């Protein structure tokens, strides 16, 4: 059986406000399974913890303010190599460097407002998922697609 992993994806306030939620979570087309999804208004403390690895950068306070400026949609996906594939589907952090067909390449203009976040490693996905979701919210579901695509 193929080894499955989870990844965390967050549609940022600008993506929510621009109505890009559906366009930004198109992972089902790739064969990944939706595990859970919520609309949140992240607290300042939660957002500081989520972005703790960036705390020494000068843009950190503005990032926390921006991320707390409106609701975010948080999603957990499951699949084979879902972390790496999710990052490829996102495109480069800087939208100007992203290829057409990627989320950043198609929908974003600047780094500071790039509508979506996706985990960059399995370890960071585990940490981010545990920050935003309780374990009982992670739904286990086996579909026919799983057996046709991944096994």
From TrEMBL:
Identify which cofactors the protein needs according to its UniProt entry: Mg(2+)
Q: Which Gene3D superfamilies match?
A: Nucleoside diphosphate kinase-like domain (3.30.70.141)
* Keyword terms, alphabetized: Kinase, Transferase
Please give one Pfam family short name. Answer: NDK
Family note: Belongs to the NDK family.
Q: Which GO terms describe its molecular function?
A: nucleoside diphosphate kinase activity
Top enzyme class, one word, equals transferase
PANTHER family referenced in this protein's UniProt entry, alphabetically: NUCLEOSIDE DIPHOSPHATE KINASE (PTHR11349)
UniProt name for this protein:
nucleoside-diphosphate kinase
**UniProt cross-references to InterPro entries, sorted A to Z:** NDK-like_dom, NDK-like_dom_sf, Nucleoside_diP_kinase
- Give the EC number(s) under which this enzyme is classified: 2.7.4.6
Entry-linked SMART domains: NDK (SM00562)
Q: Which residues form the Nucleoside diphosphate kinase-like domain?
A: 4-140
Q: Which GO terms describe its biological process?
A: CTP biosynthetic process; GTP biosynthetic process; UTP biosynthetic process
Name the species this protein comes from: Myotis lucifugus (Little brown bat)
């Amino acid at each position: 059986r193929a080894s499955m992993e989870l990844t965390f994806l967050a549609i940022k306030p600008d993506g929510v406000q621009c109505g890009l939620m559906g366009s930004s979570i198109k992972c089902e087309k790739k064969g990944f399974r939706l595990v859970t999804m919520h609309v949140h208004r992240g607290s300042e403390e939660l957002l500081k913890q989520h972005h703790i690895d960036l705390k020494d950068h000068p843009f950190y306070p503005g990032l926390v303010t921006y991320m707390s400026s409106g609701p975010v949609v948080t999603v957990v996906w499951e699949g084979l190599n879902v972390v790496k594939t999710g990052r490829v589907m996102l495109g480069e952090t800087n939208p100007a460097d992203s290829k057409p067909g990627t989320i950043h390449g198609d929908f974003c203009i600047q780094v500071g407002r790039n509508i979506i976040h996706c985990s960059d490693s399995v370890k960071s996905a585990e940490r981010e998922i545990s920050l935003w979701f309780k374990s009982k919210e992670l739904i286990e579901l086996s579909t026919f697609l799983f057996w046709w695509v991944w096994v």
